[in-house]
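Lab channel / #folding
Pinned by the channel admin:
"Please post every new chain as: sequence first, then the structure tokens as a reply. Keep commentary short and put observations after the output so the thread stays searchable."

First post following the new format, from NK:
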Amino acid sequence: MNIEYKYQLAKRGKHHCPKCEHKAFVLYIDNTTGEPLHSTIGKCDRADNCGHHYTPKQYFQDNHISFDTVRNYSPYRKPSPKPQPAPSYISTDVFKKSLQGYENNNFVQFLRGAVGDEATKEAIEQYYIGTSKNGGTVFWEIDSFGKIRTGKIIQYTVDGHRQKDIMPPVQWVHAILKLPNFQLSQCLFGEHLLRDATKMVAVVESEKTAIIASVYLPQFIWLACGGSEGLNIDKCRCLKGRDVVLYPDCGMFDKWNRKAEALRRICKNVSVSNLIETAATETERKAGLDLCDYLVQFSPADFTEPQTQEEPRQEQPSSKPEQVEQDKRYPAYISDVGTLYIPTPPDGRITYTMYSSVEAYNRRSEPPAFVPMQSVDTSNMKQVFINPNTLTI
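Reply from TO:
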């Protein structure tokens, strides 16, 4: 039986002793509230040199507090936690009916234009992207056991942005169906993909970003928490023992860095990417740039694993000097310690894309980092060139 006294010495935290003035005074706390009784009620840890000990009983007696109303040292049982109700689920019939109508789904059409038909088809099948009756995009939350917790419905314009004139901006399948006594218990979007235990996990805010990032960086399992406040310990218990990297939206780096501390208690490793904080321009910061906004400025081929090339055709030798042919390749720079710096494609930015090594870039075994150009001196670095056909060095 788990029984505690009502008042006990705190297990952490020390204060200045009212007698010896050393910071060795441990306060008594009230177990019902977890708060100290009074700044004078406690015990000095310097037993040999001070030994000051002022108990709750002495405090009550000195202040004429009746023991009829305050039970000193009476056994106190912590209340048993209330059992959590079992989560409710959406029927598979409702779920299956949504897996169609993609010609009327603006997000799917935007995705086709951004990454192509084949990648879009794979993304639909991987994340079970659905379509609502009015053409909205349904992001199904499917847990690790394949149970459908709910569906988040968002209306998009043809350019892939949310429709701002729709109220409410987000709808939920369980609310539209008006299911009686529905017990909502959300999970991470994409949680069902965690059955693959070989990949590192990447977490972003929005479902749209997770889907698009999965095309550009398929070496990760991409999950979404549904907003900056959605990254919490309850949703993330499914990440126990996993290697995780967090990709916060612009302006949320410090907040997610603090949240990462809690996740480190259950995850194997947790890191927080500063990719967006580093790469964003001032205009993009004000607009709340996220990883998706950054990635779609490039081709997926700039990030994905190079494909095996067919045997090149035999061509006539070129009369142009070899240096001219070499200049057609993309330049890159290698530091003395092997770090690779690739100038970001010319889109008005002033950054280098950085990999820890040439091998890390060729194998795409890690996410790229981004650093301002003015922070790196490449003048004395070894210059190499990226093959435009294989995207390797």
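NK: Residues 71-76, 305-327 have pLDDT under 50 and may be disordered.
TO: also worth noting, Residues 117-127 form the longest helix (11 residues).
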